[in-house]
Amino acid sequence: MALAAFVGLNGLVLVYLERKVAGHVQRRPGPFEVGPHGIIQPLADALKLVGKQLFTPPRGDKLLFWLAPILSFTPIFVLFIPIEFGPGLYGIDMDLGLLLILAFAGFNVLALCLAGWGSNNKWGLLGAARAVSQSVAYEIPLLLSVLAISFMAGSLHLGEITAQQGSWPWQWNIVTQPVAFLIFLICGVAETNRAPFDLPEAESELTAGFHTEYSGMGFGLFFLAEYAEMIVISAVAAVLFLGGWKGPIVDGVWWFLIKIYALLLLMMWFRWTYPRVRFDQILNICWKWLIPLALVNLLVTALVMKLV
After folding, report:
1. What is the DSSP letter of 200?
2. DSSP-based three-state secondary structure for 117
3. Whether the model pTM is above 0.90
4. Please, which residues have CB within 8 angstroms of residue 95's CB and are 6 or more apart in sequence?
5. How far apart are CA 117 and CA 128, in angstroms?
6. Along the chain (308 residues), what's the average pLDDT of each consecutive run of 10 residues?
């Protein structure tokens, strides 16, 4: 229940932040009418989604069509279980917590594939094909960047990785692994289908991509899952590279939340600043640049750890 409340509340907060960031980037105030400075606008949007009629394409596969949003949203709760938000504040203490997150994060790709396939819609199917090829490509450099940190820490335990970092910024892993952090951040944006890597749902090309046929809370579950995955990516990045819940003067959960929201704002800034890349460019960036760079970084890390 606590995780469900956390995901739902953060969904409302991030919708508001997204619209405000978009407004200020485009030199306009963003939502401003519903509540003070439009602060109740996300609640109005949520009520609108809940009240909309659920529609099933007459020629679509009903089972796959409705299994997709459920499969996209449900595994999200598993991803939060091993994350240590503060000293001793986690769901389950796991030695292989990082491996669990990486394994269950892949379910979203299957969900997007089922959504496009079950819709029996050409735009949905094209979006699903793009999602699968994009995710398969960007998972490789992401895993290689995570391996560099696990080599240094000698563990896949998120608490252990946090414990080996200090409270001050120069004691965090981002200082020794800036290349791995950059690769992880780029891959995290691509894995969550955020602009400029939002090819699976490119409005100018595919109407809405894999979720073209979804209405109401069918679309709402995909929407919530995307924001929840952004939180997970930011939380894992904070643990691996930014010292987790450690911070100057006094450690605590507030430092962890500050780091998460700083990375979320960075991802939102990317969306409303950079243009969408072409599909051939998105794969070239991964296969020709990120994977070789991640391999070199991992080999250098392994060599340094061996010599030290």
Report:
1. G
2. helix
3. yes
4. 155, 156, 157
5. 7
6. 81 91 90 89 89 84 89 89 88 88 87 86 84 89 95 92 93 95 95 84 72 84 89 95 92 94 94 87 93 96 90
Q: Inter-axis angle of helices 216-241 and 41-51, to 10 degrees?
A: 130
CA dist 209 and 207 (Å) reads: 6
- Tell me 230's DSSP state: H
Give dist(CA 90, CA 57) in Å, integer. 41
- DSSP 3-state assignment of 293? helix
> CA 293 to CA 254: how far, in whole Å?
34
Q: Domain limits of the chain?
A: 1-51, 57-307
- Specify the amino acid at residue 205: E
Over the range 60-89, which residues count as b (16 or more CB within 10 Å of their CB) and which as e? bbeebbbbbbebbbebbebbbbbbbbeeee
Q: Which of 141, 259, 242 is nearest to 191 (CA)?
A: 141
Residue 74: φ, ψ to 5°? -60, -45
* CA 84 to each of CA 106, 108, 121, 128, 221: distance values in angstroms, whole numbers, following the listed order: 21, 23, 41, 33, 25
Task: Tell me which residue has tokens 């979203």.
Answer: 108
3-state secondary structure of 31: coil
